[in-house]
Design a protein that fits this description.
The chain is mostly helical. The chain has 10 helices and no strands. It comes from Oxyruncus cristatus (sharpbill).
């Protein structure tokens, strides 16, 4: 699913279709939104390799859950949490492939991407993307990464292309159009992030090892 060019529109449509009227987060569009974000990371070259490889592995675990015999419990994040918690807390802590643990890892990376995209959107033509990216990383994923990874990541960010090059990668026309569409897409990503954060906090799942 992760082949082909990145398109910001695809990410926008997926995240827009994620949240139901009952504020449930549907896993199918969530995962397709993630494939879009993975294509975004891959289009930026090896710099984000360590994050995109991890995201691919996590999305694939979730797709296996969706297609497995318990698939009906993995319709939404809410039904997944309810189902996995009903099997007992030991089950959750002891299963590295549990949906809750896997989504938590994606959730943390989503915050970084959300902050980074927002930084690109509000930045100026000559804003340094390496700074935007490092600030976003430090405010999100960094606290979950060991020092070595943090060091490598921050070094890698120095090689990032210009803001305009980023906006071109979004495949939606000139930079100002990309900025407009980011303005449209980011609130949907924020909404999915916020609902997930609330759900996981409510069930004390934010620190799953």
């Amino acid at each position: 699913a992760a082949v082909g060019a990145f398109s910001l529109r695809e990410v926008l449509d997926a995240f827009r279709g994620c949240v139901t009227e009952r504020r449930e987060v549907l896993l199918e569009p969530y995962l397709s939104g993630w494939w879009g974000l993975i294509r975004f990371l891959q289009s930026l070259g090896a710099v984000f390799g360590f994050i995109s490889k991890d995201a691919v592995a996590k999305v694939q675990i979730m797709e296996r859950h969706r297609r497995g015999e318990q698939g009906q419990h993995y319709e939404s994040l809410q039904s997944m949490v309810e189902f996995e918690l009903s099997r007992g807390p030991g089950e959750l802590r002891g299963r590295p492939e549990s949906g809750c643990r896997t989504v938590l890892r994606l959730h943390r990376a989503l915050l970084w991407l959300q902050l980074f995209l927002e930084g690109l959107r509000t930045g100026h033509r000559d804003s340094r993307t390496s700074t935007i990216c490092t600030d976003s990383y430090n405010a999100s994923l960094a606290k979950h990464h060991p020092w070595v990874v943090r060091k490598a990541a921050t070094l890698a960010f120095c090689a990032l292309p210009s803001r305009d090059a980023f906006l071109e990668v979004m495949n939606v026309g000139p930079p100002e159009q990309a900025v407009d569409m980011l303005g449209e897409a980011i609130p949907y990503i924020q909404s999915v992030y916020g609902i997930t954060q609330e759900l996981f906090a409510q069930h004390s799942l934010l620190d799953l090892p």
